[in-house]
Amino acid sequence: MPPTRQAASAPPERPQMTVMLSRVAHSLYWMSRYIERAESTARLLDVNLHFLADLQDLSVASQNTWESLILSSGAYEEFRKLNATADSHSVTEFLAFDLRHAGSILNCVYAARENARMIRDQISLEMWEVINELHLILKSTNTADVWARGPQEFFTRIIRASHQFQGLTDATFPRSEGWEFIRFGKMLERADKATRILDVKYHILLPSATDVGGALDTAQWQAVLRSASALDAYRRYHVREILPWKAAEFLIFSDSFPRSLHFCVAQVDDLLRRILGETGARPRSAAARASRRLLGELESRTITDVLGQGLHEFLMDCQATLAAISDEVAETTMFYPAESSLEDQQQQQQQ
């Protein structure tokens, strides 16, 4: 009697995430976000210092520039408690070296290393060595020496270490569920930083409409593009002068530049559906619905629509959506708060 033919079995469903995997996912996610945040802050400060150094009339150019960086970072009240004025030294010190500010470059690197240490057996040796080496360098760094040599060298070291870490991650980490959390954290952070970089320009818009499109306005938009490493890519598409609306359009709507808002949100949407097991056509979770709605807006709207609504208002809506996505993913897939050795690092710094 011939054997009976069995019905084709359905593809196995994605297994539910275990507590241990949630703990690992949490550390992978925040390790990636902190490294990306440190790099973005370093580039923003570096570009801003060069921008003001290149201009002759610093009194006009810098009157709102440094305060705009603090406003866009979301730490204005915290900054005001620690500093009387917003100038090149106080803002750079606060965003780069101040251990009292959880989002400073030093704290981001320390927190990234702490998360990497918690999952040392889950990441490659090369990834660990890059983070640990950068951590050791910063622990032995004296901020007074950094200022004496010029902070640009410090910022370049942070940016190159981040690039090295990301390249080694691409080359050595398996394309598993953990990989999705690393990518998700990086792209979510990039999307948020894209909105904040553009919002810096909003806060320093020239008060006179006749000045828009002038030499200073063009220089400011060039600095905005450089803050996102987008100047060369922009010039490949627009070989002539830098036009404000074209620069904003490129940073928001480009579907091929890896740091544009549209590109990052598309990656976030895809990775989010994988992480949450959203296999159907209609998203079930609030986070997946939010990302799909934001992606739909970016695919259907134009820069004219955004400017008509108001650039600042549009960016604030995007930041709120990205924050809501991050919060829900943390609540549904991670059971531990973000690792941050802020108190330990402050004690080490004092010693």
What key phrases describe this protein's structure?
351 residues, 18 helices, 0% strand, disordered N terminus, disordered C terminus
List the helices and strands and how they pair.
Blueprint: H1 19-54, H2 58-61, H3 65-73, H4 76-82, H5 88-97, H6 105-118, H7 125-139, H8 143-149, H9 151-172, H10 177-203, H11 215-227, H12 231-237, H13 244-253, H14 261-275, H15 286-300, H16 303-309, H17 311-333, H18 342-350
What does this structure look like?
- There is one protein chain.
- The protein has one domain (19-350).
- With 351 residues, the chain is an all-alpha fold.
- It contains 18 helices and no strands.
- The radius of gyration is 22 Å and the shape is globular.
- The longest helix is centred in the N-terminal third of the chain and has 36 residues, at 19-54.
Question: Outline of this structure?
Answer:
This protein is mainly α. It is built from 18 helices and no strands. It has helices at 19-54, 58-61, 65-73, 76-82, 88-97, 105-118, 125-139, 143-149, 151-172, 177-203, 215-227, 231-237, 244-253, 261-275, 286-300, 303-309, 311-333, 342-350.
Overall structural domain count: 1
Instruction: Note the gap between the termini.
Output: 83 Å
Sketch the topology as an H/E string, one letter per element. Answer: HHHHHHHHHHHHHHHHHH
Helix-strand category: mainly alpha
